[in-house]
Structure formats: structure tokens, C-alpha cells
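Write out this protein's structure.
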Amino acid sequence: MTKTNSATIKAVTIGLLVILIGLLHFLTPTAPHTYHKVHIILRKFYFLPPVMAAVWFGFRGTVLTTAAVSALFTLHAYLDWPGDYMEQANQMGEVAGFWVVGLISGLLFDRQRGLLMELAKANEETLLGLVSALDLREQHTRMHSQRVRDYALLLADKIGVKGKERRDIGFGALLHDVGKIAVPDKILLKYGELTETEWQVMRGHPAAGHQIARRIGFLKKAAEIVHAHHEHFDGTGYPGRLKGYGIPLGARIFMVADVYDALITDRPYHTRMSHDEAVAVIRDKSGSHFDPAVVEAFLKIEKSELLTIEERYREGRNVYD
């Protein structure tokens, strides 16, 4: 569900609730006294839509909703209690209550939303600092994690991934190599072939990264990507030998982004390929290394979109500075 559709559904829900409460209020007789008690109860339900609007839409939403509720409630007061100025005064007091509750709720929820956005930004900046430190340690992959995140998010957009799942993919791609902090420098920075023993140590970094990331609440889903980022679609990867759709979607997206970046970047063990050569390798490994559906989406990305990301990091600078 897109953000626009979700907002529309919420707005319609509030509108229908206002109409339902209004109908019950208008259709309930004002006499005898028992029905008057029902009226008093129904008045309290008018507080609900402004508070809901505050939660979902903030200050602006609650102003509009409270205005609609006040107009409906005031109309009822003048139609059902003509000449009863004492009762009308009581009901105008209720209207004042709607505005007090609605406006305070809107202001508080806007403030809370702003604080949460600041916290999310601070968390992301902290993660970027950690990743930048790791990239500096492994110099031949400088800025790799940040490039791969951008490639993975671009691919996620093409597939139609939205909201929290998209954010999790971004964090998972950014932190995929965090487990390499547990790999000794003599292995991590070694030029040339690794021995089988050294490869066993190197292959432990997804599990180590998973252990680090999963302890942080908002990274639990991202940790699954970290753990599975070296799995292969045909089940020949590691550490869990996961296969096919048993591999999280974020990890299947990441694999394509990761290999593409590795192929077009100079590394100690290979010379960089051109964009077209890298795309050909990814196409050839569809169904074995990669999820065919993800490869199909990747092939639909314009060359210029991918080269724009590469160019952004070419000077080795952190674009989030």
C-alpha cells in the first residue's frame, strides 16, 4: 500500500466516523430524559475524530477535523434545542473542549513526530560513521557499502518495495560487511588468494554481522539481510545454504547490487569491468547466483541511473557529509 493510499483510507475513515456520530446524534430524540442521557454520551464521541486526526495527520489534520465536528455539533445544538439557551451554552462548552483537545493533541503529535525524525536521522548518521570507519579499514573497497546501498534501493524501487521494508533493505545493504570487524587484518587485507582456513574465518563475517545488528531494535529485519547476503539462489551460498525464496527478498536484491559494484570496481583480485560486461555477468548468473525476478528488474534499470551512483562516489567522498 502506498503512502498516498494509506492517507486516503485514514481520511475516509475519519470522515465516515464523523458522519456516523453525527447521524446517531441527530436521529436520537431529545426527549424523554433517558434519551437526553444518550445525547450526553454521544457528545463525548465527538472528541474521537479530532484525536485520530492528530495521530494520523498532525496539527493541520486535527484543525480541519475539529472544524468539521464543531460545525456539525453547533448545527445540532441550534436545531434540536431552539430557545433553550442554557443547553445551547452547555453544548458550546463542549465545542470549546473539542478545540482544546484537538489542538493540544495535534501539537503534541507533531512534536513527537519531529523528535522521532531527528532520532532516525541520528541513528542513520551513526551507522554511516560506523560504515565509513569500516570502509577506511578495508581500503580497496572504499565507499563500497554506501554505493551498494544506493544500488540496492534503486533496485528495490524498480521492484516496488515501499516503506519500512525499503528502509530495512537500505540498512541491511549499508551494514552487510559489519561482521568483518571480527576478521583479523592479516586475512581481511591480504593480497592474493586466501587459504582454506582463512576462507573459513572470512565466511564467518555474515554470522558475526548478524549478531551485532540483531541486538539493535530497529535493525532486526536488516540483520536478516546481513546474515543472508552471501546466500545463492541455487543454495550453494553460505552460511545457511538457503535456497530460492527461502532467502529474504532484501538479501536477494542486495546480491545483485553487491556483485554489480564489485565487478565495476578495481579490486586486488580483478580489473574493473565496464557496465555492459558487468550486466552480462549478472544476466548469466540468473537462476544460479541470483533470483531471476530480481535480475529481470535490474536489467530494466537505465544505464545512466547506475552510472550516476558510481559517479557520485568516484572521488571517494561521503555524500552524506
